[in-house]
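Kindly inspect this today.
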Amino acid sequence: MASHFDEFTPSTKSDWLDKVIRDLKGKSLAELDHQWTEKIRLSPFFHREDVDERAPLSSGSSGSWQIGSMIRVEEEVSANKVLLDELLHGVNAPRLLLTESLSAKAWENLLKEVEPAWISLEVYPGFQEAEPAVWVDPFIAALLKKGVDLNKVTGALRIGEEAVESLLKNHQIFQDRLPNMRLFYIDNSGNYRPDNPEEELALAAYMAFYRMQQAIDSGMSLQEAHANLQVVLSVGNSFFKSLAKLRAFRLLWANLLQAAGMDSIVEPPFVSVQFAPESQDDDQHTNMIRATTMAMSAVLGGANRLEVLPANATKEAPTAFTRRVARNLQHILSMEAHLDQVLDPAAGSYFLEQLTNKLAEAAFDIFKGMKKPF
């Protein structure tokens, strides 16, 4: 069947550039280049000849993501009320930020009327601990008292650097008790570098890769070690840069696995995305507007889990209203914009593909020159 396009002569990149140069009337095209990062400068002109065709980058899911929320636990009864409200209104991946180790009874109060097997639960101690069992054991005891099947508990445990040696030594115990909770929580959110995302990516990948290698050396299989990884990255106010950075992490990781002869792993690690505090303004209404594009960059970039920062969270405790706005933004992106129905929506964009490739290449070069991160 004939196509309407058959009437037109195909235009090459050279044809377009000739036209652009004529229209610039002597002005150099290079003057229109944009400095995206400290190392990456790109022309504003993109063409399919500049990009190698490849399949969409997989995030390990069909495009859906978990709706996260951070709940600071200073007193378990009041924290339980916030937790229940978040769950009732659509959060399915809460993160519990502990300010101190909780007893089994305190965990019971915190998880009252909560069904841990129905959600993805992250436990994030904000204190230093040398032995993770000190706070993990009471958590497990509370789950068992509730009659929860531990095999159905999913999410992640954030084990701090002080306790990693103990974790690696006793990893089989943790895996036997909580087999579906990720143990290697690589929190790179504190290394947000808006002007140098290549370094940010390289550091995140290096920490994750090094932890995976440590786990393998301690007796885990490659598949087990990789399945236990969770990497936390931040997004900022630059929509395209944030989106491309998340895509570049997946490409970087695939290249690292291939270079290490580990390409039997075909999916990237689980990636949780947060808002960089530096991206927030003193005006919470400005933050609400910014949150829209920041959240879009995260889910379009392939986040497996997203926390939308309540608009006043960097100045004071989030209110019921700012939490509601943060939640509803994610609901709109999934239930109205249907962004959870598409795998890698940015695939095929000549500009985003090129920016993704450049970020991944630069991060790979930095990775190769890094020393042990711990």
